[in-house]
Design goal:
- The protein has 262 residues and is α/β, with parallel strands linked by helices.
- It is 42% helix and 13% strand.
- The strands form two sheets. Strands 1, 2, 3, 4 and 5 form a five-stranded mixed beta sheet that branches. A two-stranded parallel sheet has the order 6-7.
- The longest helix has 22 residues.
- The two termini are 24 Å apart.
Length: 262
């Protein structure tokens, strides 16, 4: 989706992200050019990315029996520190960036836009049950998708007029009645996140345009609890999203004017 946007002539003035959108968004805010797409492809097909959720199932279950999460946060921290710098702050990014996390103590969404970048991104992407809560200044945070999965309302609040939503494909799938135990939580979460997204879309100001870019569909759907570990199909998913997004932009978004107004 990013590659399609850059090749259509769009450059971001601001990036707002939640969960995996915070991870990708931080890199884009550090390098808001098409070259970042090559960097992201290399990142998400690398052994370092596979290591984020790469523990054996046995080790995960042993950890889960004694703790509240399946995976150590260290592989993701090392990946982020390698890509964006251990001590990088929001103020050092080339364009403004904001990411959302859910505060446990306040039971509320929290937006990070200043201070250490890696800690904020880790807080935004701390999926409950998979990664432990991130403690920042005595407060504990988990994945922002719980409170604001597709934050178009926040983009409007900070002044955006043209918004491109880069989503991971779940909102394109129809929901069905759960038939297996793990599907109950998945469906409940999807209802909550889609309800807020639909409500914010319906209440957009007249001068704001939103484009939800397509993921290009998927292969055989895998809804098992271990589906998140599948990194093998990343390249194919990237290619499908690029083709679908280029087609969408060509059909639905007016091209940017050239240097002579053409």
């Amino acid at each position: 989706m990013l590659r399609a946007l850059f090749r259509a002539g769009f450059r971001p003035d601001m990036v707002i992200g939640t969960s995996i959108g915070a991870v990708n968004g931080a890199l884009v805010a550090a390098d808001p050019s098409e070259s970042v797409t090559d960097r992201l492809v290399r990142l998400w097909t690398s052994p370092e990315a596979a290591a984020v959720y790469g523990d054996s199932v046995g080790r995960q279950l042993r950890r889960f029996a004694a703790r509240t999460h399946l995976h150590s946060p260290m592989p993701l921290r090392r990946l982020l520190e390698s890509e964006i710098g251990e001590h990088t702050t929001f103020g050092e990014l080339k364009i403004p960036f904001r990411c959302c996390a859910a505060s446990i103590e306040r039971a509320a969404e929290h937006w990070f836009d200043s201070g250490p970048l890696v800690d904020a991104v880790l807080a935004s992407s701390a999926v409950p049950g998979l990664l432990p809560p991130m403690e920042i200044s005595g407060e504990h945070f988990v994945d922002g998708g719980i409170v604001n999965s597709i934050p178009i309302g926040e983009a409007v609040r900070v002044g955006a007029k043209l918004i491109f939503v880069l989503q991971v494909g779940r909102i394109e799938r129809p929901l069905t009645v759960p038939k297996r135990p793990w599907e109950v939580a998945q469906v409940a979460f999807e209802i909550a996140r889609r309800h807020r997204f639909a409500r914010e879309l319906a209440s957009l100001p007249d001068d704001v345009r939103v484009h939800v870019l397509p993921s290009g569909g998927s292969e055989k759907r895998d809804d098992t609890p271990w589906a998140y570990r599948d990194m093998a199909a990343v390249g194919r998913r990237i290619s499908r999203a690029y083709v679908a997004s280029r087609r969408y932009l060509a059909m639905n978004v007016n091209p940017l004017p050239g240097p002579n107004g053409s």
